[in-house]
Amino acid sequence: MNKAKVLLEALPYIQKFHNKIFVIKYGGHAMIDENAKNYTAQDIVLLKYVGIKPVIVHGGGPEINRAMEKFGKKPEFIHGLRVTDEETLNIVEMVLTGKINGEIVSRIFKFGGKAVGLSGKSGRIILAKKKRKFIEKDGKKVEVDLGRVGETVEINTELLDILINNNYIPVISPIGIDEKGDAYNLNADTVAGDIASALKAEKLILITDVDGIMEDINDPSTVYKKLTVSDVKRLLKEGKIKGGMIPKVECAIKALESGGVKSVHIINGKIPHALLVEIFTEEGIGTMITKK
Ligand SMILES: Nc1ncnc2c1ncn2[C@@H]1O[C@H](COP(=O)(O)OP(=O)(O)O)[C@@H](O)[C@H]1O
Ligand SMILES: CC(=O)N[C@@H](CCC(=O)OP(=O)(O)O)C(=O)O
């Protein structure tokens, strides 16, 4: 394709999204190598340069697993949530806030962007409380103790508004704080959805390691380009959406139905510049979910 044509195709989208907030959740599975990390950071910087306001929420599940193993601890998950004892919480904060957050900030800086690294504790962005989790056992609902796993009580946008309005790119780790000042480990997808709703974001973009939501999880050619909330609810009921994709679509539904977010996108961070292709082309590259 003619290079100028490619750029011109982006023009209506650049106009449409000027000054709009995009919350981008950068998942641990998408942070695979230097190239993939560079593409994502470059795309975020370009979004900022064309007048979009990106806000980054990151995960880092695989790196937390590796760190836990180094400390002789075995990662354990219940319905996709990491069982988090005190020692694990320290490892989670060390890896997410202490390492990955700073790396993303540096990489954005390397490509010309001004990012500010924060945990959800900073400025009390994520007011959290302990999450109570119930599972089905022998046909009965029983409570399981996930330790220091939290859920959002409230997102405080004050600090984020200041940063966004002064042209910074906030980069947030999914650690919350409760009224007493205790820290909690939260699922990064859920946090991204909550922050997107609180900021009244135009888009919530989830960067992961699969091409989008697939009809058949083993066949990438079955990726859905566009889905509505009711399509997603049907796929959930049919058991076609599993594992780590469940919290993603749950937060997508919540952000679209009650958060005022216009669209949620699930894209593959391993594809070069997937973010730009999804946002600035008609056909996109991943799955776009809308309310109707
Ligand atoms: N219908 C589906 N379409 C695509 N992926 C699916 C589907 N159902 C389950 N998945 C799984 O969800 C995973 C993405 O979630 P997860 O591993 O938690 O990613 P991340 O670390 O990026 O948050 C995929 O790798 C895939 O195995
Ligand atoms: C409670 C809980 O499970 N928290 C997650 C936080 C990181 C995360 O969500 O990372 P990904 O997006 O890379 O999966 C965890 O400890 O792994």
TrEMBL record:
Q: Could you give one GO CC term from the UniProt record?
A: cytoplasm
The residues that hold substrate are: G60, G61, R82, N185
Q: Where is this site: Transition state stabilizer?
A: K25, K248
- Which principal EC class is assigned to this enzyme? transferase
Pathway participation: Amino-acid biosynthesis; L-arginine biosynthesis; N(2)-acetyl-L-ornithine from L-glutamate: step 2/4
Catalyzed reactions per annotation:
N-acetyl-L-glutamate + ATP = N-acetyl-L-glutamyl 5-phosphate + ADP
What molecular function terms (GO) are annotated for this protein?
Answer: acetylglutamate kinase activity; ATP binding
Is the keyword Amino-acid biosynthesis in the record?
A: yes
**What CDD domains does the entry give?**
AAK_NAGK-C
InterPro entries on file: AceGlu_kinase-like_sf, AcgluKinase_fam, ArgB, Asp/Glu/Uridylate_kinase, NAGK-C
Q: What does this protein do?
A: Catalyzes the ATP-dependent phosphorylation of N-acetyl-L-glutamate.
State the family it belongs to. Belongs to the acetylglutamate kinase family. ArgB subfamily.
Q: Which NCBIfam families match?
A: argB
| Protein name according to UniProt | Acetylglutamate kinase
Q: Gene of origin?
A: argB
